[in-house]
Amino acid sequence: MGPRIGPIGEELQVPDKDTKAMVGTEDTPGGKARPNPQDLRPSVFHSIKFFVLCHSLLQLAQLMISGYLKSSISTVEKRFGLSSQTSGLLAAFNEVGNTALIVFVSYFGSRVHRPRLIGYGAILVTLAGVLMTVPHFISEPYHYDHTSPADMPQDFEASLCLPTTEAPASAPAPSNSSCSGYTEVQHLAVVGIMFTAQTLLGVGGVPIQPFGISYIDDFAHHSNSPLYLGILFAVTMMGPGMAYGLGSLMLRLYVDIDRMPEGGISLTSKDPRWVGAWWLGFLISAGTVALAAIPYFFFPKEMPKEKHELRFRRKVLAVSDPPVSKGEDASSERSPGESPEKKDGLAQIAPDLTVIQFIKVFPRVMLRTLRHPIFLLVVLSQVCMSSMVAGMATFLPKFLERQFSVTASYANLLIGCLTIPLAIVGIVVGGILVKRLRLGPMHCGTLCLLGALFCLLLSTPLFFMGCSTHQIAGINHQPGGQPGLELFPGCTEACSCPSDDFNPVCDSSARVEYLTPCHAGCASRVVHEAPDKSQVFYTNCSCVVGGGPVPAGSCDSACSHLVLPFMILVSLGAALASVTHTPSFMLILRGVKKEDKTLAVGIQFMLLRVLAWMPSPVIHGSAIDTTCVYWAQSCGRRAVCHYYDHDLLRNRFIGLQFFFKTGSLACFALILAILRQQDKEEGTKATIPNSGLQQQLLASGAKKEPEESRV
């Protein structure tokens, strides 16, 4: 039997030393058994409330560091010359290490010292976050011009239109010399370090959430456990929003803020060559995780089960919840050490198995669970929803930058302050509807279907909210052909322009963009100094009507005013999709056998990682790459994309989202059809015995009538 809940005097029957440390003077008769000060010191680490607080902060910090890369994905692409497919694969590698080890959490369960293992995992997450910053420190300072990085004025001259005879003889030399074997090895090392760090980030996160939830559920009062878990999830859900907020702040700072060149830089955050301090956010997040990990090394392996229900929760339960039967109360107050009589599920028999036996049994139990049609369809619908969320979370900032000409900082601010809060509201609303309306499986399926349907309808206008790519001199706007440079206008024939340079200027009167001032035929440069920032202009441009001046930087999009309506529709769609989270989860819990619930939830999260969170960023990144019309070249290999076909980018990115939403809607429709069929079958089964019973009663009544008439 577990520790009993009774009068104050009965608490002396618990001989546990840890419990005595928790019991204060008021909890002992007469106040005589006052613990000494040494026993009072560790008492805070024997409180499940303090564990909930620590675990909420740790999961918040963990999700912040996990989601931070998504907020700076376009910046990392520009800094290290990565394609969207490679950056999507990098974002997905967080799930590789996690998926490889998450299955064994069911095996180890309470065998290990869970708080200490959570602490070790958090330390590994911290090291992974620090490792993500190493590429910044081992790489050379960022040069937004490819020519002669040692001399800044020469950079400016190299971008100008110089006659062939006056062009420096060594102009192409830096580009060739930069393609040394050392440079290629350094690039491979940088990419390898980031992939390793992302894998370690996933491995470190394996024990944090499962062991934390099970620890809370084991040692909290049975009535307080749902409240504690609700607080935990509510705080945790703020992690991605804080990641985008942190990204918005960090990307306003220049990438080499720790090693600024003499004389400063002439870039602004709106310049397409701007690279923010992406690495600084990883250091801040890693430091937060390290601080949150410290208390876990002081929590015990097992703590006394919480004895008292929270007073305000008792009042709420008395009003809203039905009375709990004695049988349920007794079963729910069973101590963690006690096991139920039946051990049918894998979660119950796992402690009696060796690792080899567990690995052999797991596939058979998983296949048995997957044969359940409701479970399979719910998981498939969640795979579609998670694929949509993974692609949107990874590449929505980049999409906003390209489609609406906003800065990376502003794009992250919109997502962190608008989309993620509304998604959290959607999850909460879905849970409230299930709780207050006491929705059964049929109504849960209907709620999921309506949420997916309205989410799909809201995404339809997004196809038309955007505009075409403005004209770029010398760029072919047909990605189906060979992307690259065409013949430049004849106005630049007298110039010797580097083919690998990227320093765009915009002729705003004609809405034409040029790759460099040289390609616009500009022969001189003027800097307008201002108190807050300096603006660079180029003059004497032979390709521009009137000769200029033309400002440095890309042309602004004609659809910049549509970014807020676009984000409002995206955020409302995210809220409606999030409404389906809790009811779909309840369909799984109510649709499988009681002994298989734990395993079913584990299989659900594993399949979501394997089928959604791992491939979806790569799929979205590959689709984005197919819309590129001009690739930068680095040492003969394709690097970052400078220009996209905006119409094609919008149609393919939003089209992928539409495809996954349609798949989720179809799965929920099938679920509803199956549930209705099951209800009909149960109704017919119930009517057949009733009709037989009525016939028996009629027959018995007919026999009794003569007897009664005789009387």
Describe what this molecule looks like in 3D.
With 711 residues, this protein is mostly helical. It has 26 helices and 8 strands. The chain has helices spanning 17-22, 37-40, 48-71, 73-80, 84-102, 104-108, 114-138, 152-158, 173-177, 181-204, 208-219, 225-236, 238-250, 278-293, 311-320, 326-332, 346-349, 355-370, 373-404, 408-436, 441-459, 563-579, 581-591, 597-613, 615-625, 646-710, and strands at residues 471-472, 505-507, 512-514, 522-528, 535-541, 550-551, 628-634, 637-644. The strands form 3 sheets. Strands 1-3-2 form a 3-stranded mixed sheet, with no helix packed on it. The chain has a 3-stranded antiparallel sheet with strand order 4-5-6, with no helix packed on it. A hairpin with an 8-residue loop joins β5 and β6. α7 packs antiparallel against α10 (181-204). It starts with 16 loop residues before the first helix and ends with a helix. The model is unreliable at 1-35, 37-42, 146-155, 167-177, 313-344, 480-488 and 704-711 (pLDDT under 50).
